[in-house]
Design brief:
The structure is a single chain. With 172 residues, the chain is α+β, with helices and mostly antiparallel strands. 29% of the residues lie in helices and 35% in strands. α2 (114-123) packs parallel to α3 (138-150).
């Protein structure tokens, strides 16, 4: 379930960068023989809190990638980032993929692998620790990572819900 402070974003006036997460050749067996096509999963983001993912399928690699980018631009979300990292620890599961994302201090870098790294860098997170458990399927990893990011609560939301100042959120 998406959090109330996460909202869909329109693509107007955004400088989006796309990252190819995975591409695979798929085969359809017909009476006339095998038909090959390609499926590409793509992540787009502006590296300042907006990210989306998409899937494109086509007979050629470049067409599949461009379709994936167009699909990703239709599903953009605003993610709360605090000083280059996430506001709090988050766990999510999608299919067989489990992800754990932990905030890190400045200078740590993005300690994540493969599909998770592409999503986290596209959001604009510069310092984070991430671990994927279970399935290594890139489709499910991207969706689990997106689910975890969409469940994050911003610092302002936490302060408002608790009825305290921003300083007290960090200092107890």
């Amino acid at each position: 379930m998406a959090n109330s402070n996460i909202r869909k974003v329109k693509t107007t006036d955004l400088e989006l960068k796309d990252r190819l997460v995975a591409i695979k050749r798929v085969t359809k067996v017909t009476k006339g023989g095998r038909t090959f096509s390609f499926a590409a999963i793509v992540v787009v983001g502006d590296e300042s809190g907006i990210v989306g993912h998409g899937l494109g399928k086509a007979g050629e690699v470049t067409t599949a990638i461009s379709k994936g980018v167009e699909d990703a631009k239709k599903n953009l979300y605003k993610i709360p980032i605090h000083r280059g990292t996430i506001p709090h620890r988050q766990v999510a599961k999608y299919g067989g993929a489990n992800v754990l994302i932990i905030p890190a201090s400045h200078g740590t870098g993005v300690k994540a692998g493969g599909a998770m790294r592409a999503v986290l860098e596209s959001v604009g997170i510069t310092d984070v620790l991430a671990k994927s458990k279970g399935s290594s399927n890139p489709h499910n990893l991207v969706k689990a990572t997106m689910k975890a990011l969409m469940e994050l609560r911003s610092v302002h939301t936490v302060a408002e819900q608790r009825g305290i100042s921003l300083d007290r959120v960090f200092n107890g």
